[in-house]
Write a structure and sequence with these properties.
By secondary structure, the chain is α+β, with helices and mostly antiparallel strands. Helix content is about 55%, strand content about 15%.
């Protein structure tokens, strides 16, 4: 397994792909994630969020009420296993009561819940990128042999 530094560019690109190439499409098409796309979804979540948001709850607003669907990281991964239904709904427990909710509404809510952890991940990645840049610069600045022959 190859581990790469989570640079600002990598995290930003993963966030853009997650939101615009996947979640926006899932909202528009009112679809679930296919079995063959789950690995991509999980990888994008890992890179786009860098583990941020673990203390956040998945807050869901539906029909004028606000619900806490549990820890954000757990619910967003559970969404990868929703099964496609004819009526494009998923059964979700809202205050302990099983309720049919349109899948597009759940994806919209996920998108809204990702703003804070995505911002936090970008801040972490920016620090990582700055450290990398500083490390690279110091490596370039240190040159004990400038290639000139001093005659010794």
């Amino acid at each position: 397994m190859k581990v790469e530094r989570a640079t600002f560019e990598k995290v930003k690109d993963a966030q853009l792909e997650l939101i615009f190439d996947h979640i926006e499409r899932l909202i528009e098409q009112k679809e679930t994630i296919s079995a063959k796309s789950r690995r991509t979804y999980f990888n994008l979540l890992a890179t786009a969020l860098l583990g941020e948001g673990s203390s956040l709850k998945f807050i869901f607003e539906y029909k004028g009420n606000i619900y806490d669907l549990g820890p954000l990281p757990i619910f967003m991964r559970k969404m990868a296993y929703f099964k496609d239904t004819e009526d494009k709904t998923q059964e979700v427990k809202l205050k302990g009561k099983p309720t049919e909710v349109p899948i597009g509404v759940l994806w919209e809510s996920l998108r809204e819940n990702l703003y804070i952890p995505m911002d936090q991940a970008l801040k972490v990645a920016l620090k990582s990128s700055a450290e990398l840049l500083t490390h690279e610069r110091s490596g370039l600045e240190f040159n004990p042999d400038n290639g000139e022959d001093d005659g010794t």
